[in-house]
Amino acid sequence: MVYKVGIIGFGKIAQDQHLPAIRANPNFELTAVASQRGLKPNEAKHTFTDYREMLRDLRDLDAVAICTPPQVRHTIAREALEAGKHVLLEKPPAATLSELEDLRRIGHDMRKVVFTTWHAQYNKGVDIARDTLAGRTVKRLVVTWKEDVRHWHPGQQWIWQAGGFGVFDPGINALSIVTKIMPQPVFIKQSDLQFPANRDAPIAAELQFSTGVEGADLRAVFDWRQTGPQTWDIEIDCEGGPLMKLSLGGRRLEVDGEIVADESDDEYPQIYRRFEELLASGQSEVDEAPFRLVGDAFMIGRRVQVEPFQD
Ligand code: NAP
Questions:
Q1: Which positions of the chain have pLDDT values less than 50?
Q2: pTM for this entry
Q3: 3-state secondary structure labels for all residues of 20-45
Q4: How much distance in Å is there from the Cα of 130 to the middle of ligand 1?
Q5: Pocket of ligand 1 (CB under 6 A)
Q6: Distance 232 CA to ligand 1 centre (A)
Q7: Does residue 91 carry a catalytic annotation?
Q8: Are 254 and 245 in contact (CB under 8 A)?
């Protein structure tokens, strides 16, 4: 079966990852692109400036991949589901948890697949870490996610607006790994959020987690002001061992100093293979756990104002 898919929002992630992943998968065909700016990739048979026209005109379109900023995802996803399309949601899957719950319900009622994608989870090292941690007690977890916002999000104003999540846009990738691999549920115990004086979203955050394990040291630091080498590391220390380190955003895993996974980037091809499985079985996959931690970090967060940030 070849699924006809349309991309809505043809920005950085759609061009860098979705387009090549769809192109490389013979079970998907890029039938359409809806781009407000009127971008027209050669592969797309149909192009629209208004996604509503795409939903209305292309009756045989099976699915859409929504690659817009999160603030508008719920409205677009709801209309796509109501038009009878399966929906793949870029991360974060919506602007609020209530919106995501609504999409889950509509997908169920319309018998359409809703797929929340958390790309950082699609790494072999992450799967091995989860399997290694099963049944163990984590006594130390240190997440360090530091990158250069000017490099990764050039000119993206939505990311600094309320609902754009600021540094949690990359930080949620770390949290999606944490929620996947941790053997116990993780809660936000403390959250310090640094907001530039001229922005509505944080540029840095320090989080402390709890799992109910007495004396455990569980924390994360996210920072968007890092220049030079970028850091996407998670160190995990279990009672009685082993000592593990996930680095490169989950692509490399060391266990007790030995590299057990070191893969090239295969996240989006894997996302589309998973989408294929879900479409074939008619099952939705709505994982709200990483998103819930972000919501909690904002809910109990202490706001600290820092110097203005200029692009
Ligand atoms: P981006 O480059 O700003 O692209 C988003 C695109 O969405 C815009 O170029 C625009 O494309 C469309 N759009 C913007 N506002 C819209 C609106 N109000 N209604 C409908 N469409 C709108 O952002 P991005 O980096 O691709 O990020 C998009 C999503 O992917 C975010 O949720 C982000 O967290 C996620 N993501 C990004 C990366 C990354 O490395 N950049 C990695 C993984 C996931 P058109 O003009 O073509 O419509």
A1: none
A2: 0.97
A3: HHHHHCCCEEEEEEECCCCCCCCCCC
A4: 30
A5: 9-14, 35-37, 39, 67-70, 72, 90-91, 119, 152, 156, 169
A6: 22
A7: yes
A8: yes
